[in-house]
Amino acid sequence: MPRLSIITINYNNTVGLAKTIESVITQTSTDYEYIVIDGGSRDGSLDIIKKYEKSLSYWVSEPDRGIYHAMNKGIRQATGDYCQFLNSGDYLITPEVTERMLTDMPSDCSIVYGNEIRDIGNKWVVKKSYAGRPITFLDLYRGTIFHGSAYIKRSLFDKYGLYDESFKIVSDWKFYLVAVGLQNEQVAYCNIDLVWFDNTGISTLNQALDQYERAAVLKQELPQRILADYERFATDSIILGRLKANRFTWFLVVNLYRVLFWTDKLFA
């Protein structure tokens, strides 16, 4: 059975950190190590870490240069076959989920992901990312594999490099774009409710920064001619998706197209 490195990064989130740590150290699996990287918190987080330090494989509390610098610290300490990034505030849904994931996951995949649970409108919503279907480059152009519910093979970071610390919130997406979208690393899905996602983080709340950084990554990674095609196609598909969401508007568009088509045929 593969061994997992669970990495938690934290900064001034005492309540969230305690919840995250407790969800990890109560796992029934023993095939994991637990790494906590704190950014020099001043709110009592260090007390939480010391309270649980006997259950931690490694921890440090010192200033860092952002979330990806902190994650990279964790990756450098990781000795497992796979890494899971469980940020403070996120937590594992039940004590047996790690054991279930490690038991069910295929051995020949670079990335394996489960389900993520979010609170949307005071309702628990299960997010399945791509739910096991083949992931295309266009999928990653427009979306992503949920980070907290993914097991990423540790060796991929040796192959493609650590997270790009020049970006604040999209470096995990950039990593997927390169490894899966451009280099065809294999991805598998386990239909297991794995992680509760805290949707009050910077990546959720700062959509403008997300779009700005995504555009910078695409410009960096894709030739301009290819990028121009994807930008045009993505815009057209978004418009069509919105039209389909409004059934009446979609009905008008389709029938207008039919009228124009047959008018052209009649007067040709």
Automatic annotation (TrEMBL):
Gene3D superfamilies: Spore Coat Polysaccharide Biosynthesis Protein SpsA, Chain A. Transmembrane segments: none annotated. Residues 5-131 form the Glycosyltransferase 2-like domain. InterPro entries: Glyco_trans_2-like (IPR001173), Nucleotide-diphossugar_trans (IPR029044). It comes from the Bacteria. SUPFAM superfamilies: Nucleotide-diphospho-sugar transferases. Pfam families: Glycos_transf_2 (PF00535). This is Glycosyltransferase. It comes from Spirosoma liriopis.
